[in-house]
Write a structure and sequence with these properties.
The structure is a homodimer. Chain A has helices at 4-11, 15-22, 30-43, 49-56, 77-88, 102-114, 160-173, 189-204, 229-239, 250-262, 282-285, 297-309, and strands at 61-67, 92-98, 119-130, 141-148, 155-158, 179-183, 212-216, 244-247, 272-277, 291-294, 317-320, 323-325. Chain A is of the alpha/beta class. Chain A has a 6-stranded parallel β-sheet with strand order 2-1-3-4-5-11, with helices on both faces. Chain A binds a DNA duplex through helix 2 and helix 4.
Chain lengths: 330, 330
DNA sequence: AGACAAAAAGACAACGTTGTTTAAATGATT
DNA sequence: AATCATTTAAACAACGTTGTCTTTTTGTCT
């Protein structure tokens, strides 16, 4: 690899002058700058980041630990958001993917710190509590899409309560009056909070809570094909007879569509449907397309990176709003 | 940050001895090793990778350029596969996400080369041709899930022909005799090759090609909600009357399920369905669960990384087989 | 105990940069 | 033309490691 000194020799200047050109130091005369620029091009010189970091004692790298992020598609926007901000400020992102066990997160953090990252974003696949290796306290760390018992970490999570409220208000204000909510497992914080938000909406609009039916369903994953969301949808449609259903997750909505179709109930006309997530291609796959509350992943990624780059010291626990994506299903 | 010399002072040895301990040099007496290990722990010393890389002139980092990878969920297995192999060999992965325009890929490559990566994996979201910045030729580069007119790059792609053959043979051998193939846009290499594979299967089994109906459908994306796959499915079911349908992509299968259900045709009993991709949660979402040809993303990631780490010089263009995931839909 | 080989640890330079100090070139002012 | 201030470039040290060479320590054999 060609070094700064070789460029200097080639250009007939001192190697320090080359360094100045590379770093856009204005105190280089045009004639010398041109010589250097030419030599750089001719020799194909590329600065050595490792050497630069060594000397500067600043890496310009932000670490991103992705806690098994990869399984759920849209979560990836977390990385996209963080990368955008980093890029704009000439910082680099070092993404490490770890599985859920704690050991691996610690190893990842170690790696990152050996690279002298200037901060770490720890992002989770879904909004939940995490247990973090203590090593992370040694470096500015932000939690994204998760929270920790140890409240010393600033965190950014989706505003689940408000999301529940928003979607329920939207339905109520669209004239729906009897709503069923096929919630996720209520051990999940998202499920608890969204439920609360939906209840809030009913209270806000003065609609009696008898008009709201909430039920947790369990739902098929790629591994186990069991799910009771179809059964629940059918039973609720038959017995509770809602005029709208809110699904805790877009995949649940897919199953609801199947069940309702089989019962001769047409989504959008006979039954409003709304959901949470804006999961990849799913909403557009359905007819009518699914109205859903889009998770603010991109914004959370941005927020986390901005927090780090501003070198904030305050420990805050922020929430970001979902976006209601209105399509044809209600 | 604490340095190797501070550890040395603390432990009462020369800094070179600390370096030896850190690098597991066996020529350090146990008593000194213990002293050093203790001091490292006590002071919280962490080796400085940048300095190490500077001196060693070896980064141990492999670059991964993800060509807009993030939009399709399961593609992420490419990174997972690559990371697994890298991890096992004590290498690190530096992942950069780029959008499709060429400029950005060049910038990404530049960044990586400033970090003196030992190789680059350029991976695409879906199997297609890419145009690469020339700078990539300066560094060992492997293409994954894509290919390039410039055949100087080794590449690893899915074996589309064989996948078509496999799924068609599976259906034929399961007794299906009249098959429709809802193909993707035939400008896509995957569509062309899979079609060929399916035809091969019919020839292999001596089933007349009149029993095979192939048609390209266009298909809804999250942006535009148009799709003709529903119309095509209905028409074909009515007119061609196949006993099985192969879908070019799992999302198409979802739409086929809807249409067939509305026609009173039960998947798995009245009509076999198979598909390509094994797209995230989709297959398990359907009832019966969708049998599909899983793309070898993980294996491609592994292959690409292994190719780089073996420092192979031969330029090969390999194909990896899909995996038939048999569920209940045929 | 003395000689010698082997093991262990130290001294010092080097990696490719950037920060700091010093020197040279340039230009303005008298 | 001499003086001085300012701009520009060079010299040199430093960053935190590892490679190489040298010295010291240890252990074995006579």
């Amino acid at each position: 690899m060609v070094t700064i000194k070789q460029v200097a020799t080639h250009a007939g200047v001192s190697f320090k002058t080359v360094s100045r050109v590379v770093n856009n130091d204005p105190t280089v005369k045009k004639i010398n700058r041109d010589k250097v620029v030419n030599s750089i091009k001719e020799l194909g010189y590329r600065p050595n980041r490792a050497a630069s970091i060594t000397r500067r004692k600043k890496s310009g790298i932000i670490g991103f630990i992705a806690d098994d992020l990869l399984k759920v598609p849209y979560t990836f926007d977390l990385i996209r958001g963080a990368q955008k901000v980093a890029w704009e400020q000439n910082k680099e992102l070092m993404v490490l993917n770890v599985t859920e066990d704690r050991y691996s997160a610690e190893l990842a953090a170690q790696h990152l710190m050996e690279h002298r990252v200037e901060g770490i974003i720890y992002a989770a696949m879904y909004h939940h509590e995490v247990i973090l290796p203590e090593i992370l306290l040694e470096c500015p760390t932000v939690l994204a899409n998760c929270y920790c018992q140890n409240t010393q970490y600033p965190s950014i999570v989706p505003d689940e309560v408000k999301a529940g409220e928003t979607v329920a208000l939207a339905l109520l204000d669209a004239g729906y009056r009897k709503i069923a909510f096929l919630n996720l497992n209520e051990q999940i914080i998202a499920a608890q909070d969204r439920k609360q938000g939906i209840i809030n909406a009913f209270i806000l609009r003065g609609v009696p809570l008898e008009n709201l039916h909430i039920e947790s369903v369990f739902h098929g994953s790629p591994d186990k094909e069991v799910s009771n969301s179809r059964e629940a949808t059918a039973r609720i449609a038959r017995e509770f007879k809602p005029d709208a259903i809110i699904c805790g997750q877009d995949p649940i909505a897919v199953e609801a569509y199947f069940v309702l179709q089989s019962m001769g109930i047409q989504v959008g006309r006979d039954m409003g449907i709304a959901s949470f997530d804006d999961w990849d291609t799913i909403p557009a796959l359905l007819q009518p397309a699914l109205s859903t509350m889009a998770l603010p992943h991109f914004d959370m990624g941005k927020w986390a990176m901005e927090y780090l780059l501003e070198e904030r010291q305050d420990i805050v626990h922020e929430k970001l709003p979902f976006t209601l994506v209105k399509r044809g299903s209600y």
